[in-house]
Amino acid sequence: MLIWRWTCFSLLLGFLLSSFSELTGGAELHVAVEQGTSIHINTSAGIDTQCEVCIRKVCQSSVVLKSDTHLNFSCSEPENVFTVEIMRDTVMNIEPKEQDAFQKFNRIFTWNLKPTDTKNFTTLNFSTTGLRQIGPTDGCSDKHVYMITTENVTIGRFCQNGTIKEVRVRKVVKLSLEVSGGQTLNMNVIGVSMRYSTNLLARIIVDLPESRLTHDFFTPNTFPEYARTMWHFIVPETYNTNVLILNHTIPTCLQPENIPTMWYFWHLRKFLKKPLNGTQPSGETGSFILFLKNCKMSRPSQDLMVHFQISTIKRRKVQCEEDLPENQMLQVRVKKKHFSSTCLLRLNSVPMNTVTLTSGKRYGLEYFDCDDEELQWTVTQTIGPECKEWRNCASTPNQLHFKYKLNCKGVVETMTWHLHDPQNSAVELQSPTGLRYCPPEDKSNSILILNVSHNPGITIGQFCPNGNIEKIQIRESSITVTASITSFNFRNLENTLFLNYSFTQNISEHYIFTVAPKIDDPTVLATPTWPSGMKPSSTVSWIINTEIKSNLKFRNVTQPKCEEEGNTNIAVQTIRSQKMLYSTKKDEKINDVLVPESFYLNMTNCKFPTGAFGAMMEITLQKNTNTNTLLGIILSIVGIVFMIMTAMAIWIILRKMKRNKAPPVTGYNPNAFLPGLHGIPKTQEEEDPHTYTYIDDSLVYSHLLKRNAENEQCTDESSPSLPDRPLRESVTDSEMIDNELYGYTQGESTTSGSPKSPIKTSE
Q: What is the pLDDT of residues 367-387, one digit of tens each?
């Protein structure tokens, strides 16, 4: 009977166990819970199920485990229904610990970080693994998603292996790690430290790598009012960064002037403020801080949200050393032209916007992503007086050019020389190609500009090469010459000879310009310091060297008001004849002057001017009309000579033809014997067959010469006149007649206008 009862109980127990097993699907777990840890088992969001978790026959949709517990589930695959969250409270380092019983479940490992003081600032150190921020609905390839939360605000969602090395959050912080079911927990120890808090909602430290990548960042969700978030981006020195806003929403602020704005700070270098709908910084160099602050919002309003992207680009690095010789008194300055340029300039590893190198020292210079057009190189050289008095100075002019070769590659844009004169002397500047005045208002196409000035900061003029100004003399003790290029295509500034300089005896004027104008090339001149006025009581002179007439035109003159004891003066005087052609009087209108020869142009300012005294002039040479007359005379002479030679050639030909046809016949000879008057004529053999009467060819052809001269109207005194030739009685030998016709005798040439040497007739 007892055995039967035990058998029946066993069958009943088996039936009950079988029924429970069918109810739970046979899923049983034994969970070990550490001290200070709680395990929350909840139905996953969005799942509609009747599956429950049971503890000691008590079944429900969620449970919290704080000690070791045996669990049963009412379904066969509870891992598809429930999510397990393992929560730990800690103030120390975060160490990962897996729950083997729930490895098939979606797990959330959560660490509640509670500072000992409410003023503390919690720092999460991810330097071992690094984090990469993702969007609210994005996932990670390794099925591990981190989430940082504070004050019910999600700072962000992250994946492992990223650039975020540290996150600082105020007050209570919750760090969560979501691991998908079936994935083994894979994480490193996360360092935790406490610091004194600030009013920042969060501070994210980002260490950008040396690679060309893009990195996404998001603002916290439900961004609180007045809250501020800061990102600190550490950028490698060989890279620059671009910031791009991909998406954003702006709340409705009670005060529109406090609308959220991106604030950028570069340490000791730069600050930028950019609206969310504007262009963000691009091509920037160096580490920087980004701030974003929310406003006081009016309700209803959308939340503040910004999704932005940081991209890094590798930079070009140039490194060189300069060792400037001490004896040349040099100064080399390298300066960034634009403050916002991506170019990074460093001297001895220290970032700078301007680097100054001086003689006698050695420097290490570095620059990154710096094109020639982004850096301004200037060289300054000081040339002290080589002698105490000008008599003891070198007699030959010195060359003004840069002799030192820079080791660092760069285009020298400006070169400056400071010349110090000896006592009681003047400096004389000459250009190998001449100079032309290039006023600042003219848009000169010259690639080189020379600026000449003297202390205290008075500009004498701005000049270009290839002009009519041959020499400039200045009566000042300190002269500055600056050569500047206007085109980067001109890269030989260091090797160019600009001016020759020498020291001479002192001059009475402050400035003297020697000018040699050319035809068809108007010469523009201006008073020193143009368009500003000349300094009081100063005098300037121009020596204009020309052999023909010139027109002096005053294009622009400004006259000051002077006190009673003095006036300004403009005077024009010829050099050879010392004739005063023009001199201004008080309140007289300035007129143009026609000058017949080389002249002086002198201008003097009054002692106490009120206003500016200055002038701009233009000298134009007139084409000489005598040149045309002289050309006509020369052409006339050529025509006459040609006609004479033609007539001579015709006469010779006719004479030879006649001589070949008949015996020679004497011409008119008053001493010849006439038949019947002086006895019996001699026989032909007894007579001299070479005796002729001389006929002057000028008498034969003078009417032709006269007519040609009248036609050509050649009356100038430089025209050659016909020679006066004496009538010859007779000549012998046809060869001497030919010589006489061609204008020379016995090998001696005869010039036009001079009588011929007399030729003796034969006996």
A: 887 888 888 889 999 988 878
